[in-house]
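[job 0412] stage=fold_complex status=start
inputs:
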Amino acid sequence: MRTKPEMMGQLRPAFSELNISEGFEFDTEIVTNEIKEDCKPLLLSNEQLTTLMKDMNDAINKGLSKDTNPSSVVKCYVTYVQDLPNGTERGKFLALDLGGTNFRVLLIELGENNYFHMDSEIFKVPEYIQTGKGTELFDHIAKCLAEFVKKHNVDSTVTLPLGFTFSFPLRQVGLTKGYLNSWTKGFNCSGVVDEDVVRLLKEAIRKRKGLNLQVTAILNDATGTLMSCAHKTRYSKNCFVGLIVGTGCNACYVEKVENAELFDGDSSKPYVIINTEWGAFGDDGKLASITTKYDREIDELSLNAGCQRFEKMISGMYMGEIVRLTIVDLANQKKLFEGRLSDQMKTKGAFGTSFISDIESDKANYKETLKVLNEMGISDPSLVDCANVRYICECVSRRSAHLVSAGLAVLLNKMNEKSVTIGVDGSVYRFHPYFHKLMVEKTKQLANPDIKFDMMLSEDGSGRGAALVAAVAVRDELPKMNGVAAV
Ligand code: BGC
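[job 0412] stage=fold_complex status=done
writing structure:
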């Protein structure tokens, strides 16, 4: 099949009549001009991205400075993680990973010669718990932890260090103390904002018998990703950035202690990881000029209206919905499917972000696009409809990748290291067929050309990372661990 311009006039060519060749590459020739026109606000020029970079850089500096931090939307929390793994970490560690619909418990063993063993289990966090009482959330976590420990015969006579990956904006005041600033993504539990999350976890654990552990670190998934990537590259490469493009979006980076004005930890060590929480960039209106009507609608109908505006343009929790809203709007204007829409297509949240990856993975004949549209209740789209839908997906995912690239370029320019490895995790980055390529291309265009960088998929950042932060924290004290008091 070639997407010839003359097909534009043909309303509904049957797919079976088309001469489909292998290696089909999507081109935009048959995408209708009106769709291209309507999607224009989603295409960001380098000029727009450069303006955004300047604003993001200012927002990060504002977050780092003691005087301006309270009014900054990008909070730049200090993580109290100052050391990367060096390979001498040994022992067994528990890790908890909370950040999305799934909650995980992990048991990790680190040994000689890079020995690494991991057992893990996934538990659901039902929606009623995600938006219920905070005490119920932490009781649920402790219950899952107890089940895991029992099932895996964890020796209860030894106190195990535990790292807790808590992937929400946390104002940390120490490696084991942090106050929740606000919930994000699908969470909104009562009684947790402004509370010390480690205290809530410990209280829930205390209610259960037989759990012998010590919470030695709380961290963000971006930090976990950076640590896990630093561990994997065997401590030789400059893994200085951790990035998450999954249900949510965030990045952390290594900053000089003297620039992190709110840091009150060990200033004899030169660096500390900063959790930027850049998802909140734009909450002061700095993204207004590139915000579309679909972005506004998503925001207004979300659990946290007015918050996480950058994240809402990028992450997996919202991308599919942006595509759906665009499709519905254009179909209502009779620019798609001759104006016909299904109930599914009209249902909020029904078009998952994974559908974007499926559609953009199409190699030939729009097979995947057809499958997705059929699943969404659109049974007989035309070829042009398919091309249009794919184009919408491309515009939305491209915008997402380019916004992340602008953020990355800010961090790279800011650190100004000759060479940086960026550890990346998250379902969007993992499963979208071109996200990596789009990000590398655009970051190259936007960052200082003297800076070399590479992006690597960090294996299981939030799980491994939690164990590694816990391991680094107790690295020099391990022999003492058996004797420490439990939580
Ligand atoms: C949270 C971050 C987290 C990111 C990715 C955001 O919604 O605020 O803390 O790192 O999602 O999970």
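[job 0412] summary: The mean pLDDT is 90.
[job 0412] exit 0
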